[in-house]
């Protein structure tokens, strides 16, 4: 990769590694539904004008059903599950569990991508890594198990959304698609968030975290990611999936004083190894890249 691609790679890794820390800060004073609705509304306010300036919005015509479906499984569902899940587990564990996404995509694509011994080994390693993280980090804590379950369900929805984009929405320009899904998500979430507005004073830190989630972790991160794909190609851009959990862990440990256990490191290494093996192409081909805001 050239210098610009490396800069974009580092930028996306950070922008998709910090949401879990910011969510932890925001939900101290704001309800999860307000955090999610505010985040996507801010992103939509940025992404819709960008798509309009690029002239890509007309491409959404005739694709309302696909945009609504994707908005639900790509943004509304995962964002809510992750934000509510973080009420019960650490931000670092959240980031690590989401790293299992490539393994789940491989499982969903098993009919299209034949299983080889290497891919089977990768799937097994990834699932063992999840078992290590959940079994050793939240063992005996039913609320922790609930939170981890929410994160894993969110990750499954992310994987389903990636497959859906490939099969049903690959002809829609990315900026238009993201602008459409964030707008649809805002429309779906804001009515519910209106009934959960804070009644007590909200700290400046919580508002700042919410603003950063929308502007940086959603809108800016997606735009930077698409630029990265253009500079380095989808295969290399997809490697950011392995980098942002490291950022999430380092921030959680350094800023929130979250524990860094040997099981955490072991589980992450198993997941990364599993993702790498399970996504190895069976024939020379471009690697499908998960595209989502963390």
What do you see in this structure?
- The structure is a single chain.
- The protein is mostly helical.
- The protein has one domain.
- The chain is 74% helix and 0% strand.
- It is built from twelve helices and no strands.
- The chain has helices spanning 3-15, 19-26, 32-54, 64-85, 91-98, 101-108, 117-137, 142-168, 174-193, 204-237, 240-255, 262-278.
- Helix 5 (91-98) packs parallel to helix 8 (142-168) and helix 5 (91-98) packs antiparallel against helix 11 (240-255).
- The two termini are 24 Å apart.
Total strand count, please? Answer: 0
In whole angstroms, the N-to-C terminal distance is 24 Å
Radius of gyration: 18 Å
Helix percentage: over 70%
Helix/strand order, N-terminal first: HHHHHHHHHHHH
Q: Decide which structural class fits the backbone.
A: mainly alpha
Return residue spans where pLDDT drops below 50 for at least 5 consecutive residues. 284-290
Give the number of helices.
Answer: 12
Mean pLDDT level: 84
Number of domains: 1
Strand percentage lies at: under 5%
Give the overall silhouette.
Answer: globular
**Main beta sheet: strand number and arrangement?**
none
